[in-house]
Amino acid sequence: MQVVKFLKLHLKLNSLRKLSFTFFLIISLLLFFSCKKDLVIFDDNTTRIAFGSCGSQNNDLPIFNVITDHNPDLFIFLGDNIYGDTEDMNVLRSKYNQLGSKASYKNMKKNVPIIATWDDHDYGWNDAGKYYKFKEESKEIFLDFFEEPLNSERRNHLGIYHSEIYSINNKKLQIILLDNRTFRSNLKSYNGEVDDDNRYNYSLDYGIINNPDSTLLGEQQWIWLEKELQKTSDIRLICSGTQFGIEYNGYEAWANFPYEQQKLLNLIKSTNANGVMFLTGDVHYAELSKLNEENLYPIYDFTSSGLSSTWDFSTPNSNRIKGPIMENQFGLLTINWEENNPEIIMEVWDVNNTLRFKHSILLSEISF
Ligand SMILES: [Fe+2]
């Protein structure tokens, strides 16, 4: 009898031990995944945000060391963060891991908080939209890799769109990460639309979709975005994998969906959202575009693409005011909050740590 009692007690203690171990593990995991956001701290009068896109996990990516040396407050991945291009989720995960184990990436991760959105190649397939079959699995892999907190609302809706508002003294900075893949309608093949314009001396892939039912962001993301733009903030960085403020060029951009592009411009007007500018990627070069729209302040689209990828030429873009920079580079946005009218400085630095262009504006220029 004593032996049975002893065994029962032993079993009880064992399961208690197992239970407390599991409890400890869950709490540790929750703490690990939920404390990441707190790393992003903008704690003085100058905020410095680095960003870039289009880096292959097969390259060494020394650009991450250059970024780390600049000691920014934050790095934003704008998509094509890896070249996944697969329907095999084990392959996709291993390609993220390849990026994660890179010395230059580890160095940046150790020193600089990182947030991210995606574009086609890391979403899963070249130029893919809403019909990519593995978008939900790919989303989980993406969020896990970038250590999105387990309690993040980003894990509870379709797609990876997300927004944060950071306080810097008495000012607010909103960072909006768009998802231009999960909901995007099919593209339309190019059909000779600009054949008689000799600026387009290359082969174009896509035409302009003049159909208001074709969407880039999808209904739910539009509803969410309107609410975000209604929130109070001094400066808003809208981060989009593909370029917003450029001229149509026959490749992927918001210009393929003119109804969607106009809808966003109208939304900025109707919500009276001050301080909007775009950070974009995708094209394998850097440039600064300035889009002029009636009854709206100028919309700047600051593109940095080419963490390791390069391209032979830049496409026609009558909105371009700086660039193109064809070598590997990253974008650096500095906000000097000190004055009543903060200064916003846009710089592109290349992989040799050379400043390639610089453009400054005052917040009043992008305010109603
Ligand atoms: Fe892309």
Q: What are the salient characteristics of this protein?
A:
single chain, 368 residues, alpha/beta, Purple Acid Phosphatase, chain A, domain 2, 2 domains, seven-stranded mixed sheet, six-stranded mixed sheet, 13 strands, binds fe (ii) ion
Question: Your description of this structure?
Answer:
The chain folds into 2 domains: 1-33; 39-366, 4-Layer Sandwich (Purple Acid Phosphatase, chain A, domain 2), CATH 3.60.21. 27% of the residues lie in helices and 22% in strands. It has 8 helices and 13 strands. The chain has helices at residues 2-34, 63-69, 89-100, 103-111, 120-123, 135-145, 219-230, 258-270; strands spanning 46-52, 74-77, 114-116, 162-168, 171-177, 235-240, 276-280, 286-291, 299-303, 320-325, 329-336, 343-350, 355-362. The strands form 2 sheets. Strands 4-5-6-7-9-8-10 form a 7-stranded mixed sheet, covered by helices on one side. Strands 3-2-1-11-12-13 form a 6-stranded mixed sheet, with helices on one face. Strand 1 (46-52), helix 2 and strand 2 (74-77) form a beta-alpha-beta unit. Helix 2 (63-69) runs parallel beside helix 4 (103-111) and helix 3 (89-100) packs parallel to helix 6. The protein is globular. The structure holds fe (ii) ion (FE2). Fe (ii) ion binds next to helix 5.
